[in-house]
Specification:
- The chain is an alpha/beta fold.
- The protein is built from 17 helices and 19 strands.
- The strands form four sheets. A seven-stranded antiparallel β-sheet has the order 5-9-10-11-6-7-8. The chain has a six-stranded parallel β-sheet with strand order 16-14-17-18-13-19, sandwiched between helices.
- Strand 7 and strand 8 form a beta hairpin.
Length: 449
């Protein structure tokens, strides 16, 4: 009786006993083989499983450089069948034929392949990713993208919101290639969103570019693209994100997609490496729900003061704190009290791109001090009922915000100070008129996070 695959992986020191036990526990409620479960959990790679299978079944192991597709036999097999089951007819150096399989234990698939080919070829073992990349490398870019996309775990309706043009290779039109690339990007992001991933990573390898997902701080392989289709895919992502010359210099950008009525911001970072272009896609919610006051640890007494201050028109609540992130979160928590759907809310917030709050019009003034004051004045031109300023950083922006409160608006503004007294002193040091400050400021809230 052959040894168990898990025992072989233990002997090869690929997994620990705890990792194997966790995979065996997961297998009790799954029809999947232990090798695939270990891969999905991020404990091993497909290459690790292939080595162990070859040892278990005493079969030849084929690396990516040895998977030479036998054209006549491949022409007799459906492409999707080969991709789905990670199977390929391969010519050995001596001219004989073998069937490389990621799962040679699947005898039904092996027999079907033999019948299609018409030859009783013996099986060999290769990693699933290596087989699929070898198959895709024999297709044109458009056909390879479409075929690989169909083998991904999840299909989804992701709508890319921008247009771009990619260079076509002979035999394919720009429009057809662009449609194939967009469908592949959509499927990648749909798989990530369906699985709760917060990152998609395109990592160049010797045999192509491996796209991996990060879920709960665990990386797992999703799809291996051959190099000849990675170029147009990466170029399209760069176009969407507004990144110029990504294959020569590092760059970053972002674009938005919608999936199942969810709007997400995709933050893109591209870096050329010695093996090719590395692509990182971070997925964040494009619209956030502000946390309530209790969630950020505000006392009941302080919560009551905030409620009372924001229940009246013409009030300014100043939020003091040392850390910008803490001030921002406290401002958002104050917003959670207000019926945002009933108000015209404008927020002046540096670095707001990609971190939108539903019902709030956010203006990013950038880091320039003069532009900041101008942004606050621009926000007032929108005639807001509620004005949010992420930091009162100069006399002009502070006085504009405080005058807005005297004009009957609700103002939420942050001040970089460690105490409530320090906040008032900071504003006076900026040159803010003390009478304006006394009449407009309803509450100064200092909350350290």
């Amino acid at each position: 009786m052959p040894r168990q695959l898990g025992d072989i992986l233990l002997e090869q020191q690929v997994v620990t006993r705890d990792e194997l036990d966790a995979a065996l526990a997961a297998q009790t409620s799954s029809d999947e083989r232990i090798g695939k479960i270990l891969v999905d959990l991020g404990y091993v790679s497909y290459q690790d499983v292939a080595r162990a299978l070859a040892t278990q079944m005493d079969l030849s192991l084929f690396g990516p450089e040895r998977i030479n597709i036998h054209d006549d036999s491949w022409a007799k097999l459906p492409v999707d069948f080969c991709l789905e089951h990670a199977l390929a007819p391969v010519e050995r150096p001596d001219g004989s034929l073998t069937i490389c399989m990621a799962d040679p234990l699947d005898l039904a698939v092996l027999e079907q392949a033999r019948q299609e080919i018409g030859v009783s070829a013996e099986p060999a073992v290769a990693a699933a990713d290596d087989i699929r990349a070898a198959l895709a490398s024999r297709m044109g870019r458009q056909a390879a993208l479409d075929a690989l996309r169909r083998t991904m775990p999840v299909e989804g309706s992701v709508e890319v919101l921008q247009d771009a043009v990619s260079a076509a290779e002979p035999g394919e039109t720009e429009e057809e290639l662009l449609e194939s690339v967009d469908r592949t990007i959509s499927a990648l992001l749909a798989s990530a969103l369906h699985g709760g991933a917060d990152m998609v990573l395109g990592d160049p390898r010797a045999n192509g570019v491996m796209f991996r997902l990060r879920t709960s701080n665990q990386m797992r392989d999703l799809l291996l693209l051959p190099s000849h289709v990675h170029g147009p895919l990466a170029g399209r992502i760069a176009d969407l994100a507004g990144i110029e010359s990504p294959f020569r210099t590092p760059g970053s950008g972002h674009f938005r997609v919608t999936h199942a009525d969810q709007v997400v911001d995709v933050r893109v970072s591209m870096t050329p490496t010695v093996r090719g272009l590395r692509v990182m896609l971070r997925i964040v919610a494009a619209e956030e729900r502000p946390p309530d006051l209790h969630a950020i640890g505000l006392s009941a007494k302080a919560q009551d003061l905030v409620y009372r201050a924001l229940s009246e028109q013409g009030s300014a609540v100043l939020v003091a704190g040392i850390l910008p992130a803490g001030r921002r979160q406290t401002l958002q928590s104050c917003l959670s009290i207000l019926p945002l759907d009933s108000y015209n809310v404008v927020a002046i917030e540096e670095g707001a791109t990609g971190r939108a709050i539903a019902g709030v019009a956010q203006i990013d003034p950038g880091a320039d001090r003069e532009r900041y004051s101008e942004a606050v004045r621009t926000g007032m031109l929108q005639d807001p009922d509620v004005l949010v300023v992420s930091q009162l950083r100069d006399q002009a922006s502070a006085e504009t915000a405080l005058e807005a409160a005297l004009d009957g608006r609700i103002v939420l503004a942050a001040v970089p100070a460690a105490t409530t007294r320090g906040a008032l002193e900071f504003l006076l040091d900026l040159g803010v008129d003390e009478r304006l400050l006394a009449h407009a400021a309803t509450l100064v809230l200092c909350h350290h996070m």
